[in-house]
Design brief:
The protein is mostly helical and 294 residues long. 55% of the residues lie in helices and 3% in strands. Among the domains are: 101 residues, no CATH class; 91 residues, no CATH class. The chain contains twelve helices and two strands. A two-stranded antiparallel sheet has the order 1-2.
């Protein structure tokens, strides 16, 4: 097998391994004496200071304070959701960072443009692999929805719902136009791989259905973390295992962080009915758990 190695600069090549040599990983095959070594950009030792996590969060929050109004709803949602998941998994986040993340999350979930951005992002990854007629039909439906949500509505008018039925009908119509099952399977796999079908299912009950899905996921993560600190008076010897000790040592930081997260969510839930359908009945039990059996 022959492999061509191309150098971006001219110079004198000196072979260090003769032809037919057995080489191993890390062997030096040749050296190149450059005609103009000053053209090569050399790596320099970093002597500065990395920014703290909090300053990064504040900068991101300041930059995206109105992101949900400026066509960056999906990116802002992903960022805030990731920060809250990191918080629930034990990473340290300040009180201000938690508050900002919860506010951004709720603002993005309320934005009617969110499903539009999500669907367009997923559709862009498979545009070349699905029929052009279906692409045009889907874009036409999305453009119509985008135009409708931009219109100012009176307070008594209901917000525009994401056109799940119209999009599903366009997909079904294309499926029915195929002559073979192989073509239908290929299209189904492409749509599933891009996440379009699952996205339609999440918005099937309306825009609030997706919000309930996201918030429920956060509460489930909260309960899963809290379940590790459930007091058990049975004197089980497993409490001396390294895994239990590690989880116990994380208790203090997680307890503080989760309490802050719960407080922020309760503030948001006071002005929104989304949480009514997303909070499990076992939440009150998990909040009373203690580590008295350390």
């Amino acid at each position: 097998m022959y492999i061509t190695l191309v150098a971006p600069e001219d110079g004198l090549l000196k072979h260090l391994k003769p032809e037919g040599s057995i080489i191993e990983a890390g062997d030096l095959l040749a050296s190149l004496t450059l005609d103009h070594p000053e053209r090569v950009q050399k790596a320099e030792l970093f002597t500065g200071v990395f920014p703290s996590m909090e300053s990064t969060v504040q900068a991101s929050a300041s930059h995206d304070s109105n992101a949900y109004k400026n066509n960056h709803v999906n990116l802002t949602l992903k960022d805030s959701h990731k920060r809250l998941l990191n918080l629930l998994q034990g990473f340290a986040v300040s009180h201000g960072g938690i508050k900002k993340s919860v506010e951004e999350l709720m603002n993005c979930l309320r934005a009617p443009i969110l499903p539009l951005e999500q669907f367009r992002e997923s559709l862009s990854s498979i545009t070349s692999r699905i029929p052009a007629t279906l692409v045009r039909a889907l874009h036409g439906i999305l453009d119509s929805y985008a135009e409708n949500v931009q219109h100012h509505r009176f307070s008594w008018e209901s917000p525009e719902e994401f056109p799940v039925i119209e999009l599903q009908n366009a997909i079904d119509s294309t499926m029915n136009s195929f002559a073979t099952d192989e073509e239908r399977t290929k299209l189904t796999n492409s749509l599933q791989g891009a996440g379009l079908l699952s996205l339609l299912q999440l918005y099937k009950t309306g825009n609030h259905g997706y919000a309930i899905h996201v918030l429920s996921g956060l509460w489930e993560e909260f309960l899963q973390v809290e379940s590790h600190f459930c007091a058990d008076a049975s004197g089980d010897s497993e409490k001396t295992a390294p895994e239990f000790v590690i989880k116990a040592l994380r208790k203090v930081r997680l307890r503080i962080a989760n309490n802050d997260f719960q407080c922020q969510c309760e503030i948001q839930a006071h002005s929104s009915l989304l949480f009514h359908a997303s909070v499990p009945d076992s939440l009150s039990l998990s909040l009373s758990l203690s580590l008295s059996a350390q």
